[in-house]
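Next comes a single protein record:
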Amino acid sequence: MSVSSTWTVAGMTCEHCVASVTEEISEIPGVESVRVTLEDGSVVVDSAQPLEREQVSAAVTEAGYRLS
């Protein structure tokens, strides 16, 4: 059964930003899906187990953005 978590990413302004964040978060082990909403910066992640904030933050930072 999947665990869903919602995060807010600051600094995204375009579809390229969305793609970068989606790609980096998707590489976290156990992540099953990533849905990014550009308008409010929300990111919903479905994963096999709960994710640590540090894991998501590191992926978002790698993409060039930051968790709010």
Observations:
- The chain has a mean pLDDT of 97.
